Amino acid sequence: MQKGSLIRSSRRQGPDVWEYRWRESCSGEKRKHRRIVIGSLDTLRDESAALKAISALRRDININDRRMKTKPLRLAELIEHFRQRELAADNEWKTLSTRVTYEGYLRKWIVPRWGATNLSAIRAVEVELWLRTLPLARASRAKIRNLMSVLFNHARRHDFTDHNPITLVRQSAKRRTVPEVLLPSEINLLVHSLRNRERTLVLLAAGTGLRMSELFGLKWQDVDFAGKQVSVLRSIVKQSVGPCKTEAPKSRSPSIHVWFVLFVLGVALRDSVNRRTGFSPVQSARGSSLSGDRPSYDITFGRQR
Question: Could you give the domains of the chain?
Fold first, then answer.
């Protein structure tokens, strides 16, 4: 059985990191030395925290050892394994917003309640009753339930368990109240009190239905004035540029009044902004010459008043 060794390694730049090193047996060859960075001292402050982080990794390394089959695996150990495999920064399968959301649910709700529980001891009925006691909206409870199901599917994929009890957990995501939708007259009242940057952002949101992160990621090169389309190719989450939540690029065709706002803004900035560089229309509105007298827009008919 490979127990390996945990070593604190220094870096020229940034904090020290914890490294886990072991020897891997290969058929017909000498053993190869392997190592993996577990985390920095910013996230794993002492050796005890680092040892907890490698418990599931040791099981993965010794997957062919029969003794590991009889050793119970706690959910906290599975979560650490899931973090290393699925929530790493270089994992292209999960966007930054998804990783941040997962980490929040794991840290605040799942680990405190189920971290010390063995996978074999987690029952669907207990999880269902626990979800009902959480002071959260139904949609948030459903996300926690789905994340726990993702964890068990991860365990099945790596042969840590052979069943997923969360598939039997019932949790509705239906809203308790109907969300309020602003009327065109209410949007008109809102945009009249905003400066150019905020007004452009609100009109784009109302006219396209894009997510906040997608709006922040727009660039001038994404705006096709001839074809009257806006291409959504990237998003910005926590000041980090990355792909959109949906994998395939999408295009939106805003109403005529949104095009009018973008056109006026683009004309005002044509001498100071090269649109080929990809400057954001929303950011451009902050310092534009339109910050003085502002025209009034009628969102119902899409024309200047």
Answer: 1-71 (3.10.450), 72-176 (1.10.150.130), 184-304 (no CATH)
